[in-house]
Structures are given as C-alpha cells and as structure tokens.
Specification:
The complex is a heterodimer of chains A (415) and B (262). Chain A contains 16 helices and 12 strands. Chain A is of the alpha+beta class. In chain A, the strands form 2 sheets. A 6-stranded mixed β-barrel of chain A has the order 2-3-8-5-7-6, surrounded by 4 helices. In chain A, a hairpin with a 2-residue loop joins strand 2 (111-126) and strand 3. The longest helix of chain A has 40 residues, at 14-53. Chain A starts with a helix and ends with a helix. Chain B has helices spanning 58-65, 99-109, 125-136, 141-154, 170-181, 200-215, 227-230, 254-258; strands at residues 16-25, 32-42, 47-52, 86-89, 92-93, 110-113, 188-192, 219-223, 235-240, 243-249. In chain B, strand 4 (86-89) and strand 5 (92-93) form a beta hairpin. Chain B is built from 8 helices and 10 strands. In chain B, the strands form 2 sheets. Chain B has a 6-stranded mixed sheet with strand order 6-7-8-3-9-10, sandwiched between helices. In chain B, strands 2-1-4-5 form a 4-stranded antiparallel sheet. Chain B is an alpha/beta fold and 262 residues long. The chains are: A alpha+beta (415), B alpha/beta (262). The interface between A and B is medium-sized, with 25 and 34 residues.
C-alpha cells in the first residue's frame, strides 16, 4: 500500500522526477566514463612499466646504510668521535656472489624468473645529437624471461644482442631524439671515461614515455666494459607469478638476500601517487555532480511534501504510521536514484565504448593512438552505490519532515 | 445543568472513554489549555453529537477520542494531572501506545470524516476507499477494490468509481470520505463537521446517510455547529471552555430499542 501511494505520487510529478533522474544519470555517467579514462592511462602505465622493467629489482646495497665502525664502538649520541686522516675506501658497489643469489631466488616460491643486470649512465651521441641514457647490460635470454622487452621491439631483434658484438637496443624516443635508425652506429661514453661504439640492432617501444626516451640495452659484458665494472652485477630483476603480490615478495626476498629490494610499486611510487591524486580529483568532480543531483532530489521531494500536507494528515488519520509516511517519500527518492543510477551505468558504458573508438593520439606519460579506457567492475559498483546512498540521504530529510507533521495541526489549518 | 466531571454511565464496557482528559497546545507560558479534565464514556452503537462554540475543544476531543492526538499528562508547569489524563479506545490507553500501534488502532477501530473531505486527489474514488483496507492488509487488492465499489454503490456513487477524487462534486467527495471511513468496518465513525462545507441539499444528504449508518448499529461521534444536525443524534454533548457542560440523551438508540437480538 505504501509502495502504491509512493509510486502514484512519483508519477504525478513526471517532469520534475525526470529532471532529477537526469541529474543522477549524468553524474553516474561521468563517474563511470572518467574513472575508465583515468584507469585506462594508469593501467597502461602500470602494466607496461611492470612488464618492461620487471616486478621486483634487487639493488647493490642494503636498504639502511651500514653503521660506521667508530659509531658501533661508541654508540652514545653525545660522544665526541673523530677520525683523523681517513680516506674514503674505493669500493665498487655490486651484488656479491650473484650466481649464488640468482640460484636462491629461482628456487623461491612465487619467483618465475630472475635476470642479472649491470646498470649505469652513459652519454650517447649520433652525429651532432647526444643525450643521456640509462644503460642496462643484460643476458638477452634471461632478460626476455623477466620482462617483455623482447616483445616490445618495433624494429630489429632483441635476440641479436647475443650474436652482435657491439649491439645496442634503444627506445623509440631515443631513436627519435638522436635520429639513429637500425644499423646506425652510435658512440657511448660513460662517466668513468669508458668509450665505445655500438650498432643499433633494435628499437623498442613500451608506450611508457620515460622508458622509451631514456633506456638502452646491451650485452652484459659490453656494458660492464663500458661502465668500467668488470664482472659486476649491480641489479637483479625478478618476475613473479603475480605482480600484485610484488611488495610482499620483495619484503621476503630482501630479508633473504640482504640487499635493498624494490617492488615495482616502490620504484614507481611517485607515479602511483599521481594516479591516486587523479583518482581523488575524479571522485571529487563526479561526486560534486552527484551532490548537485541530490539537491535536485531534495528540492523536488520537499515540494512534493509541502504540496501534500493534507494528504499526509489523511493518510495518518486512516492508519499510516510516521514510518509509513517516511517510506512513501524515501521510496520516491530511491526510485529516482535507482532509475538514474541504472540509466547512468548504461550511458556510462556507452560513453566508454564511444570514447574508446575516438582516434585521438595521446603522448604524455604514456603514448597511445587513442583514449585508453579501462573498465573495472568496482567503478560500476561504486557509481551505483554512491548514487543510491547520496540520493537516499537527500530523500531522508523531506521524508522525515513529512513524517513529522502532526495531522491534527494540519487538519486545524496550522500548516 | 452543572458541568459533568465523571464518565457518563453506559451499559457494558465503553468503546471510547476519556478520563480526566486534558490537552494543552503550545509550551510553557504560551501553552493553551484546550481540554480541562473531560470525563466521558461512549458505548457501542451510540450516535453522539458534540456541540459547542468555536474554541470550546470539541474537535480536539474528537481527535483524542479517535487516537489522532494524545492527551497531555502534565500542566504547563509540569505538574502531572491526577488521575492521569487518558483516552481509552476499546480499552486501550492511547497514551501508552507507540506510533505504529496507535496508527494500527486507528486503522482498525476508527474511521474519520473531516469537514474538507481530504481525499487523495491522485487516486480514484474507488482507490481512496480501498486504501485503508490495503493498509490493514486483511483483503487482497482485488477484494479491497470490490468492497470499495460495493460501499460506494451503497452511497449512490456506483457511476463514479473510477473518477479522480478532484473531479467529484463536494457532496460526492464527502460521501466518498464516509465510504472510506467505513472501509474497515470501524468500531467508531468520527465526523468533524461533516456537513460544514456542503450546501444545504448535500448537507442534508450526508446527514441522512449518517442517520442510516447509525441506524445500522454503527457507533458515531460527530462534532458539529449545526444544531439541526446535532439533534439527529441520540445523545448530545455540549462543550464550553474545554469542559462538558451538558450531556443529554435525546432519544433511545434505535438498536437499543430493538433489543439485544438486533
């Protein structure tokens, strides 16, 4: 009976109800579409970063710097300690016994593959163009097991690194900046003065701009020579069975190997923070739309209550309780929310599909040929639940106000 | 006649009873003492009219007797009335009931008719009458609609069943309101100036209708300014300044006259 009365009142104000529904629909649509858009870019960045750089990387030093011997001997913070004539030790940072570490890692549960690397900075020049590069010395077979770099090759072949004595695989961005193409010979100079020439045998494109514009791969022996780090392994890259568990695995591995071990989340924490901020901004903007829609619902229901004060009194007189009256108006709000939210989900889905088809090339943090739309079920759940909750809250005030009218006062004409 | 200060004796347990009934409206110094200790008992099948000047408290008494309002238990200074101010509907103290319980009691036991009709304009005449039955939930929707049609038919409105309430004449609306008040076969029909907003012909028709309903054994309590209408009841209560000043039996109840077998 309450439902019957509620629906009859709802249908009595079709036009106003439709406006309210449209408000909810628009806000839900925007939430779904903007969330998909934001997630599209962040997912692309995360996946490409994870796939091209590995899930976990082990560095060549412990997370905490070692306490100096003098400080160990005299730990009192107020103690006066002085070393006279000391000379910094010329220590090469490296992972000790890399083969042993790799063997241990490969036996760990959750670890799919591990690859040794030597990394360092170098200046690459081609003709008059030069730029700074991150050189990664790799064993090609091991590297293709921990990253997808072999599949990201757009020109040449990654496996040729093994067969070509001076082979170099560069990012597409590096290729563009230098103007160097396949089989061109570039010059590499390391900060230690090491100098060599290398032939471009491959160009890769991950779609992640910072990677494509800064990275080059060469055979591990060549890199050790260039960087003056003979027989040195200063990084081990690991692929796990689930990149979402990388943080957990990294903690375990660090406790085993003793070197600072970073998950991809830790390595890219700055970017992840930016994505989180973007997510918050999206939520705030779409949430504001929803709040505006909720005010519409509030407004129309207050009007509906004021118009029907006499009805409320008569309904109370023949046996409806305050709770029944609350339900009558709450149901109207919830129907507006339900129809608006379902419509919004459908429109949101349509908008996502439409935007996905738009050929808009984007080159920023990631490079794509169109807008990246990534749909997650939780976007739809969140949009629906938020719309229902906000609209229900908006409907609660008029519903309670309606229930609060004293039928006797209404009949006496006090309202 | 001196003001009555004790319940009027009626045969058997009274259907409605007011005991030292007080009602204050407003709070503290601004409170207005509307009812000042009314004692009253109304038996089953009685046809009672309540008359009095405007502001005498007759409508307030009616709403309290129908459970639409609750008695005040304390005076403006917070001093409790002794004995406690109370209304009993079929033996149940309305003050002690929760909102939902009181609403259910109204739904089952009371049928209200107001001066200004108060039909729900989005609903047809038939639906207006069916609503209290749907709320009570003892009949299915189709049964409730059938009974509503039957009630309206008895009141000469069989051709107006599907007409929206706001497209009925004033007299028709009041008859629909009476049918709605009778929908759940209430213990008491409470009418507040039922002819007050009608022309003479329609007023007369509604008055005749109330007579017929009373003659059929329905308890009716009616508040009216209309002396002629008030005289049609079997018992007339006169109020003045929040008190009953006269409680007069005009004639024996038709049902009582017919004896217990009736």
């Amino acid at each position: 009976m309450v439902w019957h009365v509620s629906m009859r009142y709802f249908l009595a104000h079709k036009r106003q109800s439709l406006v309210c529904i449209a408000g909810v629909t628009i806000s839900v649509t925007m939430y779904v579409a903007m969330s998909a858009l934001m997630a599209g870019f962040s997912d692309k960045f995360i996946i490409e970063t994870v796939e091209s750089s590995g899930h976990i990387s082990i560095g060549d030093e412990p997370r905490e710097s070692r306490t100096p011997i003098l400080e160990q001997a005299f730990p009192d913070p107020d103690a006066l300690r002085a070393l006279v004539g000391s000379k910094p030790r010329d220590q090469v940072k490296k992972i000790k016994n890399p083969d042993g570490v790799l063997g241990k890692l490969r036996r760990l549960p959750g670890v799919i593959a591990a690859a040794p690397e030597v990394t360092g900075q170098a200046i690459v020049s081609y003709g008059t163009k030069e730029m700074s590069l991150s050189i990664i010395g790799v064993e090609p077979e091991a590297q293709t097991r921990v990253t997808t770099i072999g599949q990201n090759i757009i020109e040449g072949d990654f496996s040729r690194l093994r067969a070509t004595a001076d082979g170099l695989v560069i990012g597409r961005g590096v290729s563009l900046v230098l103007g160097a193409r396949l089989d061109d010979v570039v010059t590499l100079v390391s900060p230690n003065g090491g100098r060599t020439t290398a032939r471009v045998i491959g160009v890769f494109e991950t779609g992640v701009t910072p990677v494509d514009y800064s990275r080059a791969y060469m055979l591990i022996n060549n890199a050790q020579t260039l960087l003056d780090r003979k027989n040195v392994i200063n990084r081990i890259t690991i692929r796990t069975d689930d990149y979402n568990k990388a943080e957990e695995y990294a903690r375990q591995i660090e406790s085993i190997v003793g070197y600072k071990t970073e998950s991809w989340q830790e390595s890219n924490s700055n970017f992840l923070k930016i994505f989180r901020v973007q997510e918050v901004i999206t939520t705030v903007i779409t949430g504001s739309l929803l709040v505006v829609a909720a005010f519409g619902v509030l407004n129309i229901l207050i009007m509906a209550v004021l118009e029907r004060i006499n009805d409320i009194a008569i309904l109370r007189s023949f046996g409806l309780s305050r709770l029944d009256i609350t339900r009558i108006y709450l149901i109207q709000g919830l129907v507006i929310g339900l129809v608006g939210a379902v419509g919004g989900l459908a429109c949101g889905k349509a908008l996502v599909e439409g935007l996905r088809r738009l050929p808009i090339p984007v080159e920023g943090l990631v490079k794509t040929e169109g807008l990246l739309m990534s749909e997650h079920p939780h976007h739809y759940y969140m949009a629906f639940i938020s719309a229902m909750v906000v609209v229900a809250l908006a409907a609660m005030y008029p519903a309670r106000r309606a229930a609060g009218y004293d039928p006797v006062e209404v009949i006496r004409g006090a309202h | 006649m001196a003001p009555t200060d004790r319940p009027t004796p009626t045969a058997g347990a009274p259907l409605l009873m007011a005991r030292n009934l007080h009602r204050l409206l407003g709070e503290a110094e601004l409170a207005t003492h509307i009812l000042k200790g009314v004692n009253l008992a109304i038996g089953r099948r009685e046809y009672v009219s309540i008359v009095g000047a405007s502001g005498s408290g007759k409508s307030t008494l009616l709403y309290l007797l129908g459970g639409l309002d609750r008695p005040s238990r304390e005076d403006a200074d917070g001093v409790p009335f002794e004995p406690p101010s109370a209304v009993f509907i079929d033996g149940r103290d309305t003050y002690d009931l929760g909102d939902a319980e009181l609403a259910l009691l109204r739904n089952e036991k009371c049928g209200f008719v107001f001066q200004f009709h108060y039909l729900l304009k989005e609903f047809t005449a038939q639906e207006n009458v069916a609503l209290p039955m749907l709320k009570l939930g003892r009949l299915s929707r189709s049964e409730a609609m059938d009974r509503a049609a039957s009630l309206l038919g008895q009141l000469g409105l069989e051709s107006k069943l599907r007409r929206r309430a706001n497209r009925l004449s004033g007299g028709e609306q009041q008859r629909v309101a009476i049918a709605r008040a009778m929908a759940n076969q209430p213990a008491v029909l409470l009418a507040d100036e039922p002819t007050g907003n009608l022309d003479k012909a329609n007023g007369e028709r509604v008055a005749d209708l109330l007579d017929q309903i009373a003659a059929a054994g329905q308890t009716i309590v009616m508040v009216t300014h209309d002396a002629h209408l008030a005289q049609r009841a079997e018992r007339m209560i006169t109020m003045e300044d929040g008190l009953i000043v006269e409680d007069r039996r005009l004639r024996q109840s038709a049902m009582a006259a017919a004896g217990p077998s009736a």
